[in-house]
């Protein structure tokens, strides 16, 4: 029997659970929460959930002890079995984790030989010229490239990378300010420092066209850096990420658009980051507030008129729309120009139109007819975008409409999550396979991004952010409570409450996974960074996997163990949003 808890601890006022993992012959009939002196503080009856899908990891019980609000250090007892010690505190868990993950970003700042090379970068391929593109954060443990986004050939799976990270630090500063907790004074300054570091990089990546350059390509993993880095391009119909040559390389002509971003491939969040930079001040910022604002406005004007030229399929989709909504919402907050409010209303309506009534009376968010929306990194972003818009909408009816659609999307997400045997409360997704819509715990292996698939920590942290944000504004008290539970369930998973008893944040908790590449450990993970996480089994999408050691089939465990900045960005957003 294993008693699984959040390794870092629990917020005193928030939901609290443990999960008891048993062998078939074991039973968990009662549990007690003990203080360090062995006193029973709380006793309860765990709820039997049973086995999960094809995980083959045992039978599970869920033990809720949310009633405990007294700060202290505790452990859980079930019969003769005990959990590891854990902490309950008012805000220390939030402070420690924001501190840890923000220091990870500082450690990921481009520096040394990479910084020197990036001050004068040529282009990969036929484009001529050079760009001063120094700065930014390295993308991942084994990828010292710096990217606004990638996977553009997939249409619906562009992750928001560098610009969203910059945006997140500004938003985290706002959330910590709203908490009115004076103990965040140093954290708030560091949030602005990182935010402006990111915003200044975004400014350097502006392209003459009015868009932004998308990516600094890494050199070969172990190659010399000098002279090997380039401003990269993407093909529109295939990717060379997993092969020497993209499938459509011989068919596609590379033009300037291939080097630059659409709204969905980082442009929308770049505009949002610059707009929010324009209403803040920190001494490290390299530009005036007016310059950040003007850059955001100019980029919006250009990309809103030319987005179709940059996307792989020549048309707007849901990802463009929610990224655009984030952009114009921040532009309206900063400038108070009515045109941006009108544009926000238009984008919100486009998102509303992508919800489809179902037989259950709830609505599913879809990317196209009968194709559900799911995303490896940003699944919660449509709800976040709608709620950010609702906050600035002056008309009560329109504000209520935006909140209602956010509620509809989250109610559906909660329903499919609760449909499964699910002791951890892990957010379930829906995908289209053939003519069927199927429910899955983890990102599918056969999406339009294939063969790319990896752990879901950014995806579930984005859902934590959406859930937490909705809990503040919904008038449905039951929904608000359920959303707060969903948010905590996902953060618990990242902080160690999962079947592998592994904290996903390097240097914290227990059983941190390490990244190996061709059976080498050159690319060691950085303290405070968050790894990709747990996936379905390679040969069974109803199974579960977390490859911690080399096997005969796997000599590179990037899908599970590599750190990636979107995980950290969404974790910071969701954690700061607690406003403790």
From TrEMBL:
<dbReference type="InterPro" id="IPR004197">
    <property type="entry name" value="Cellulase_Ig-like"/>
</dbReference>
<dbReference type="InterPro" id="IPR012341">
    <property type="entry name" value="6hp_glycosidase-like_sf"/>
</dbReference>
<dbReference type="GO" id="GO:0008810">
    <property type="term" value="F:cellulase activity"/>
</dbReference>
<comment type="similarity">
    <text>Belongs to the glycosyl hydrolase 9 (cellulase E) family.</text>
</comment>
<dbReference type="GO" id="GO:0030245">
    <property type="term" value="P:cellulose catabolic process"/>
</dbReference>
<dbReference type="Pfam" id="PF00759">
    <property type="entry name" value="Glyco_hydro_9"/>
</dbReference>
<feature type="domain" description="Glycoside hydrolase family 9">
    <location>
        <begin position="97"/>
        <end position="516"/>
    </location>
</feature>
<protein>
    <submittedName>
        <fullName>Endoglucanase</fullName>
    </submittedName>
</protein>
<dbReference type="InterPro" id="IPR008928">
    <property type="entry name" value="6-hairpin_glycosidase_sf"/>
</dbReference>
<dbReference type="InterPro" id="IPR014756">
    <property type="entry name" value="Ig_E-set"/>
</dbReference>
<dbReference type="InterPro" id="IPR001701">
    <property type="entry name" value="Glyco_hydro_9"/>
</dbReference>
<dbReference type="Pfam" id="PF02927">
    <property type="entry name" value="CelD_N"/>
</dbReference>
<keyword id="KW-0119">Carbohydrate metabolism</keyword>
<feature type="domain" description="Cellulase Ig-like">
    <location>
        <begin position="3"/>
        <end position="80"/>
    </location>
</feature>
<dbReference type="InterPro" id="IPR013783">
    <property type="entry name" value="Ig-like_fold"/>
</dbReference>
<keyword id="KW-0624">Polysaccharide degradation</keyword>
<keyword id="KW-0136">Cellulose degradation</keyword>
């Amino acid at each position: 029997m294993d008693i699984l808890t959040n390794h870092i601890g629990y917020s005193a006022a928030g939901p609290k659970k443990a999960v008891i993992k048993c062998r078939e012959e074991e039973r968990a009939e009662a549990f007690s929460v003990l203080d360090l002196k062995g006193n029973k503080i709380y006793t309860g009856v765990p709820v039997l959930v049973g086995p999960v899908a094809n995980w083959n990891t045992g039978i599970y019980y869920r033990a809720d002890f949310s009633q405990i609000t007294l700060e202290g250090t505790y452990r859980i007892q079930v019969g003769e079995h005990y959990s590891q010690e854990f902490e309950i505190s008012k805000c220390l868990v939030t402070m420690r984790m924001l501190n840890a993950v923000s220091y990870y970003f500082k450690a990921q700042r481009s520096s040394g030989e990479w910084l020197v090379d990036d001050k004068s970068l040529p282009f990969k391929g036929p484009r001529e010229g050079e760009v001063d593109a120094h700065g930014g954060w390295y993308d991942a443990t084994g990828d010292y490239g710096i990217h606004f986004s990638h996977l553009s050939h997939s249409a619906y799976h562009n992750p928001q990378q560098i610009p969203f990270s910059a945006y997140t630090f500004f938003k985290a500063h706002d959330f910590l300010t709203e908490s009115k907790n004076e103990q965040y004074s140093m954290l708030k300054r560091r949030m602005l420092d990182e935010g402006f570091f990111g915003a200044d990089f975004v400014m350097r990546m502006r392209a003459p066209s009015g868009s932004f350059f998308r990516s600094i390509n890494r050199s070969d993993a172990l190659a010399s850096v000098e002279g090997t880095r380039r401003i990269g391009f993407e093909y529109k119909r295939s990717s060379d990420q997993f092969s020497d040559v993209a499938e459509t390389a011989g068919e596609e002509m590379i033009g300037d658009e291939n080097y630059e971003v659409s709204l969905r491939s980082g442009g929308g969040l770049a505009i949002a980051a610059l707009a929010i930079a324009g209403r803040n001040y920190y001494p490290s910022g390299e530009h005036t507030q007016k310059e950040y604002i003007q850059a955001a406005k100019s980029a919006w004007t250009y990309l809103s008129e030319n987005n179709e030229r940059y996307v792989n399929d020549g048309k707007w989709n849901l990802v463009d729309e929610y990224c655009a909504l984030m952009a114009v919402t921040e532009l309206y907050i900063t400038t108070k120009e009515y045109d941006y409010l009108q544009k926000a209303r238009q984008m919100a309506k486009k998102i509303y139109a992508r919800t489809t009534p179902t037989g259950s009376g709830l609505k599913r968010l879809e990317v196209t007819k009968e194709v559900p929306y799911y995303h490896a990194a940003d699944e919660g972003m449509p709800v976040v975008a709608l709620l950010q818009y609702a906050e600035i909408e002056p008309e009560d009816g329109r504000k209520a409409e935006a909140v209602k659609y956010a509620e509809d999307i989250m109610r559906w997400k909660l329903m499919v999550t609760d449909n499964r045997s699910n002791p951890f409360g892990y957010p379930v997704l829906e995908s289209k396979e053939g003519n069927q819509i199927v429910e899955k715990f983890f990102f599918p292996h056969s999406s339009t991004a294939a063969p790319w698939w990896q752990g879901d920590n950014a995806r579930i942290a984005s859902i934590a952010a959406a859930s937490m944000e909705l809990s503040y504004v919904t008038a449905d008290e039951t929904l608000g409570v359920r959303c707060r539970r969903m948010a905590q369930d996902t953060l618990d998973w990242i902080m160690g409450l999962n079947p592998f008893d592994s904290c996903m944040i390097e240097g914290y908790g227990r059983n941190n996974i390490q990244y190996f590449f061709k059976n080498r450990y050159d690319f060691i993970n950085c303290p405070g960074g968050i790894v990709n996480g747990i996936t379905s089994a390679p040969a069974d999408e109803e199974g579960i996997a977390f490859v911690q050691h080399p096997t005969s089939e796997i000599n590179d465990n990037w899908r599970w163990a590599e750190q990636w900045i979107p995980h950290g960005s969404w974790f910071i957003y969701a954690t700061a949003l607690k406003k403790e």
